[in-house]
Known about the structure:
The protein is an alpha+beta fold. Helix content is 64%, strand content 7%. It has helices at 2-6, 10-77, 84-103, 108-139, 141-147, 150-229, 243-302, 306-323, 329-357, 370-380, 382-388, 404-420, 479-489, 514-520; strands spanning 366-369, 391-394, 399-402, 429-437, 440-447, 494-496, 505-511, 580-583. The protein is elongated, with a radius of gyration of 62 Å. The chain starts with a helix and ends with a strand. Residues 1-5 and 521-585 have low confidence and may be disordered.
Amino acid sequence: MNSYRQGWTLRRRVSVLLTVVVALLLGLAGAEAALAAKTRQNMDAVLVKTGPLRVQGQELLNALLDQETAVRGYVVSADRADLAPYESGVQQERDTVGRMNELIGDYPDVQRALRVVEQQAADWRTAVAQPVITTTERDGTAAGQALITDQARQQFEQIRASADALQTEILAERERSADKVYQSSNMLVVLLIVAAVVVAVAGSVLLLSLDRMVIRPLTGLAEQVREVAEGDYQHHIAGSGPPEFQRLAGDVDAMRQKIARELAEVREARESIEWVNSQLQKQAEELTRSNRDLEQFAYVASHDLQEPLRKVASFCQLLQRRYAGQLDERADQYIAFAVDGAQRMQRLINDLLAFSRIGRLTTGFTEVDLNKVMGDVAGQTEAARQYADAELTWDDLPVIRGEEPLLSNLLANLVSNSIKFRRPDVTPKVHVSARLVDDEWEITCKDNGIGIEPEFADKIFVIFQRLHAKDAYPGTGIGLAIVKKIVEYHGGRVWVDTDTAEGTAIRFTLPADVEAATAEAGAATGEEPAGVEPTGDASTTVTDAGDPETAAPTVGRQPDGPPGTAAPGAAPEHATTGGMKETAR
């Protein structure tokens, strides 16, 4: 039996204990209910039956005495009025007997005593009262008094004795009912005490069982888990108690084993990571050395290489001016090729230097008003816009955090590209706008130029990628790569909106101060690192093939290329707040 019970689950054990307790309590409750009903019945007998019966028994005796007194008075006075108490006593006797019969159904002894009194009263009226009344009415008071003998008096005394016996019987029944009430009350108290004892014993058993079946196994399991938590991952966790706790211990031990395996894997991974970190450290040192070499190369490219190029270009231009037309046509062509090659090499070196300096030479981020930047861009691209009869407009732009030279270079490249890749016989129009999207400013540079095919939308931001021959649209093919690098340096992204119906729309994002933007209808900033020179050809190339060419000219410098290329820069004619417009005609 014990071995079987050891296999019981905790739920089953608790359920059995509660079932037994509930059964006992229900049995006790049923017994108490029965006793309570019986007690109430006995209380009714005492209060509702025997109590009123005693009063009615006394009233019956009083009615009989009234009859006897009235007969005596009438015999003396022969006055008919003296018989009124007799008649009322007879009526009262009948009424009282009727009420008593309603209450004595459960008391046969009382019924018999009442019948005796009732019969004796009837016999007395027949043998004594009626003859005395009749004789007095017929023969006078003396004859009536002669009938009231000792025997008549004794007969009435028997009635009084029977009435006393009736009262005694009623009192005995009342005492028996009161005893029953007392006994049932005592039994009810005993049952309540037994119920309290059952609850106390059941609670004690439940507490002891919980201590043995729940608290001790859980405490032991917690101690073992604590040992594992302190680092002893090889400690086996064994369970005790009900099957639920044993299964719980098994699950916890399985988790411990899994953690131990994963820790072993983590140690191996850590060793591998440490080895990789050491390799990365070596690569970082190698990259640092390589960056120093690149910086040295940039210095050489910007100084040592520029000098021979300038000399070659200068002397080629001298040859071209001095001997133009003096040599044959092929010699003039060769000289023109040499001059063009030297100039393009200078622009390419400048563009590469500008691209390499982005994010490396920095003056730090400040608050930059893009409206002011657009004014500078308009000045930089004025010559190109006048040549192309281009129109540059912009909406009210935000204030952002950034480097102003870089942002100026960024917008100059985009505007110049828009002017360069214009459609023939169509007045170039470039518009710059901004809108707040979540926590970023989305800035758009839109033109009515030749457009770009969607399949080339990503290719135009790759360095040295050209979609047109340099004879059609001059430039180094690095302008939009500079745009992308500047945008990403400021934490944004740039793309071509391929859903534009006409021309090209290049969009880029810059982080925004949301609170300031909502309070002032837009806020964004930017600043470019010192020493960054804008490219010599700032233009967004948006053609049928979608080739962007960019080169940001310095202030007052026209982008390199044929007279047909132009770089944008102006102000909006339909500005929302403080809008500006600059139109070159």
